[in-house]
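#struct-help
A.M.: can someone run this one for me? Single chain, 154 residues.
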Amino acid sequence: MALLQTDYVTPITKQVLEERMAYAGGTPLFFDGPAFEVLSIVCDLLVAQDSHNRIVNIASFIDQRLKENTGDGWRYNNMPTDKEMYVNGLKGINETSSGDTSVVDAAGRSFDVANLYICDNSVFPSTLAVNPALTIMALSLRTADLFLSQKSKP
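D.P.: on it. C-alpha cells below:
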C-alpha cells in the first residue's frame, strides 16, 4: 500500500496496519459459517475490497474481538452487548436482487423510484446501538463510486 510509505502514517500506525494486512484470518470463532460469510461480504463492501483482493480481513478481527468479549469504547449500561448487536444486525440483512423484500439493490439504487440512490442509515435493517457515522460515510462513498462507474459505461 503506497500510503504506508509516506509521512502521513506514523511508525506505530504503519506497524499495526502491516500486521493486520498480513493476517489472513481463519476459522470463525464467534459466528457460525453463514453469519461470518455475510459479515465478510458487508465488511468488504464497506471498504471497497472483495474476497479475491482483500487487503484487510476486517470480519476476522470483529469475530476475534467478539469471541474474546473485548471492546474498544465506552457504552451505556442499558445498551445491548456488541455480541447481540452484531448477531441481530446480521440477521436483518436479506440479500436480494429484487424489490420483493428489499428497498434498494447492492448499489443503493431504489427498486421503486428510477435513478434514486439511497446512501444513508435508512438502508440499515435495524437501529444501531453505536454511532454509525463512519459506516454511513463509507456507504456514501461506495454508493457514489458505484453510481459513477455505472454512468461511465456505454
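A.M.: thanks! Helices lie at 11-22, 33-46, 58-68, 82-91, 133-151.
D.P.: also worth noting: The chain has a mean pLDDT of 82.
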